[in-house]
Amino acid sequence: MPREITAFSNPLIKYARDLRDKRHRKASRQFLAEGLRILTEARETGRLPKTLFYAAASANHALVYDLSFAVEAAGGESIQTTPDILAKLSGKDNPQAVVGIFDEFDAELASLDRSSSGIWLVAERLRDPGNLGTILRTGDAVGAGGLILIGECVDPFSVEAVRASMGALFTVPVVRSEWHPFLAWLREGPGQLVGLSLDTDTGYREVAYSSPTFLLTGNEAHGMPPEMAAACDVLVKMPMLGKADSLNAAVATAVMAYEVLARQAA
User: Fold this and answer.
1) CB neighbour list of residue 229: distance below 8 Å, 6 or more residues apart
2) pTM confidence score
3) What is the CATH number of the domain that holds 39?
């Protein structure tokens, strides 16, 4: 049976609220996800929150009821609470109907099966959680094998990144790695490393993309370092016909991913 918590001072509420801070996520290896759609999609991938918070007004919603039942059947806990507490947990004035505490689950390079997909996404020093979430959604849309984050990237388990991913965090494997271990792993097997760059004359539609293709997107502000560009099998650029000198990192990744998808299917 769900229990009820209505006090802001409750230790579990404080613990959940602290998960909005990276330091507490790192210590606990847990994170927050909010929204019925995201939590339902997580459930469909086999991942359930360890703790589920929901508003009393949502208790009779069929999906909330099913989610609560599944959490408790798996040994987790369902908490019925107030909209004000949900707002405190989510950091939004108009909170979602449900908020869950999940265990983190990043993958390791060694666990990836590069033959499982023709497209893999690689992002170097990605700093914006909105970009990370959008790239994850792109990865889900094109059937990418995973997203590999190189260097000091934004935390994929931050509330903002999870929210921006719209559930794709649960469907696209995420690996965090440094550059040299990633490159060593990549060169152990098949894989074409394609870098998105302005410092090339090769257009993105002039290349034959082999499978699997690893699309490398550099840092939003500085692009990729010369060492990484030199390690790529090919550098490609997209035409910039206006006054802007580059596309947003997530937009560029999406354009490239669909181009690779189309070329590999041709």
Assistant:
1) 195, 197, 199, 235
2) 0.91
3) 3.30.1330.30
